[in-house]
Design a protein that fits this description.
- This protein is mainly α and 398 residues long.
- It has one domain: Na+/H+ antiporter like fold, CATH 1.20.1530.20.
- It has 16 helices and no strands.
- Helix 9 packs parallel to helix 11, helix 10 packs antiparallel against helix 11 and helix 10 packs across helix 12.
- The protein is globular.
């Protein structure tokens, strides 16, 4: 796609105006962006942009992952690591299995397309919920669990989708081979990202300029992702590891607080820009494609929602008598706040043309993401208010 400066400027202007409006009405800005994209698609004005796997996966996804990871507190994350790992492995498997079985039984999809869809749609995106948390002043353990679980299951869902595609293509795969590949892909990605992050810190320790340190974080975000993908490792988990290492350093370089404030402001803007492009285009694409596949879309929305519940409530019950016990009201937010977003879109757009039912999988993925961002994104705040999780709102008596 050629660089089109006027349309890029229009996207940024629309994003700014939509964000101003949504802040005034108390709506998550990503939901507003999707609705704006829908409105644009139905109007004479067209952005004439299209989402592609290369754009989402290699350009927009690394900064979004890095920006989320750099804000994670490692001591708090280490305390929750077992719970997050269970959510990102067993939780993804449970949700994917239920979704795939339902698409075969209810919609009549072939097993290869259903299995691939089940795994790619298991990846959650915390963007809309985190924006709501920021506006409402919600933090603490609930926010940590939402962010950390999403970053972890993004990586495992991407790896599992690749394994499902290999199986669908008829490649020889055994449970042992798949398990070994998962260990290498996940572990190698984490080590690769941690190495890039450590190198960043070593170089930054000799810097005194916030601009140099911002540049180094950008190199870490894209470098860790591209290096891991080049070695057929998990680029997402590599970027997560690099972000956690960079975000938990005692101080990036010698510029101290000034550098850290500049870096945070820069990455907030990068994430805002990436989200603006993704969600405006999501709304525009969905308006063109969804009218053809209502039945699979509605079935998938129901199955994904139930699958998310199956992935959270039973697994939380396993920890009910431990130090990792999760409050019931937090579990409700984890279920309803498990939104789908950029990664699910990238994985769907990257499916090979040889996959039977590819177009149905892609369009249904857009439908699920659209529903989660608009419907769940707009109702998660009333849910948290009802549960007494927002500042100034007491929990109602049971």
């Amino acid at each position: 796609m050629p660089l089109d400066i006027p349309r890029i400027g229009l996207v940024l202007l629309l994003a700014a105006l939509v964000t101003l409006l949504t802040r005034r009405v108390g709506m998550p800005y990503v939901a507003g962006l999707v609705l704006a994209g829908l409105a644009l698609a139905l109007s004479p004005l067209s952005l004439q942009f299209s989402l592609s796997r290369e754009l989402v996966f290699y350009v927009l996804l690394p900064p979004l992952v890095f920006e989320a990871a750099v804000h994670l507190c490692w001591p708090a994350l280490r305390h929750e690591l077992l719970l997050v790992t269970v959510f990102a492995t067993a939780g993804v498997a449970l949700a994917a299995t239920l979704t795939a079985a339902g698409m075969v039984a209810i919609v009549g999809w072939g097993l290869p397309a259903a299995v691939v869809f089940g795994f790619l749609i298991a990846a959650t995106d915390p963007v809309s919920v985190i924006a709501t948390f920021q506006d409402a002043g919600v933090g603490g353990r609930l926010r940590l669990l939402v962010e950390a679980e999403s970053l972890a299951n993004d990586g495992t869902a991407a790896v599992a989708t690749a394994a499902a595609l290999a199986w669908a293509a008829g490649e020889a795969t055994t449970p042992g081979a798949i398990g070994a590949a998962l260990v290498v892909t996940v572990g190698g990605g984490l080590l690769c990202g941690a190495g890039v992050g450590a190198l960043l810190l070593w170089v930054a320790g000799r810097a005194r300029d916030p601009l140099v340190e911002i540049t180094l974080t950008m190199v870490a975000a894209y470098g860790s992702f591209l290096l891991a993908e080049h070695w057929h490792l998990s680029g997402i988990l590599a970027t997560v590891a690099a972000g956690v290492v960079a975000g938990n350093a005692p101080g990036l370089g010698r510029a101290g607080d000034a550098a850290r404030a500049a870096i945070q402001g820069y990455w907030d803007y990068v994430a805002f820009t990436a989200n603006s492009v993704i969600f405006l285009m999501l709304g525009s694409h969905a308006a063109r494609e969804l009218p053809t596949l209502w039945v699979p879309a509605l079935a998938a929305i129901g199955l994904v929602t139930v699958g998310r519940a199956v992935a959270i409530y039973p697994l939380c019950a396993l920890f009910a008598r431990s130090r990792l016990a999760v409050e019931r009201r937090h579990q409700h937010v984890l279920v309803w706040g498990g939104l789908r977003g950029a990664l699910a879109l990238a994985l769907a757009l990257g499916l090979p043309a040889s996959l039977p039912g590819r177009e149905a999988v892609v369009t249904t993925t857009f439908a699920v993401v659209l529903f989660s961002i608009v419907v769940q994104g707009l109702t998660v705040t009333p849910l948290m208010r009802r549960l007494g999780l927002l500042a100034g709102h007491r929990r109602p008596p049971l």
